[in-house]
Amino acid sequence: LSYPIFEKISDVPAGVWKNDKLIVEKFLPERLANGEYRCRTYYFFGEQEFAAWMSSPKPVIKSSVATAVGLLEEIPPALTAIRKASGFNYGKFDYTEIDGEVHVYDMNKTPASSAKMLNLFSGKKLEEFANEIHAFT
After folding, report:
1. Which of 12, 27, 34, 83 has a Cα at 20 to 30 A from 124?
2. Per-residue confidence at 47, pLDDT binned at 50, 70, 90?
3. Per-residue pLDDT for 45 more than 80?
């Protein structure tokens, strides 16, 4: 939660550019009408998929600072295209959606989920997700 956010690229300290262990990415926050930030997460395993969101007054959102969570009804086609192009069968993508455009900022093949997020899903949905393993046997 201590990721520095700079107003402009020239504000990034020179040493950051020389450190090959650091990554600089453009901050593309999704903002809600109330001023909070929103992070979206796309979970998938084989043919099973679902997406959720978290919001927070803090720009870097983890479940520990989320003030609200919810399920998304639709998954943007751009996400499934990125998933197929990258060869992922299991994982999660964190992304924002700004003016209808998807911006993926994390692709993870070993996803974890917080209790806040897991509580969104019915046992049936989680069972369907888990049972997808049979498609690979």
Report:
1. 83
2. confident
3. yes
Compute the distance between CA of residue 116 and CA of residue 61 in angstroms, rounded to an integer.
Answer: 13
Sorted by sequence, the CB contacts under 8 Å of residue 114 that are 6+ apart come out as 63, 64
pLDDT at res. 37: 96
Q: Of 77, 67, 44, nearest to 53 (Cα)?
A: 67
- The residues, ordered by sequence, that sit 6+ positions from 56 with a Cβ below 8 Å of its Cβ are 36, 37, 39, 65, 66, 67
Which residues does residue 101 pair with via DSSP β-bridges, in sequence order? 98
Q: Could you tell me the pLDDT band of residue 1, with boundaries at 50, 70 and 90?
A: low
List the end-to-end C-alpha distance of the chain, in Å, as a whole number: 39
Q: What is the Cα–Cα distance from 105 to 90, expressed in whole angstroms? A: 17
Sequence-ordered strand ranges (E) for 7-131: 30-31, 37-45, 48-56, 68-71, 90-98, 101-108
pLDDT grade for 127, boundaries at 50, 70 and 90: confident
Of 98, 106, 90, 100, nearest to 43 (Cα)? 90
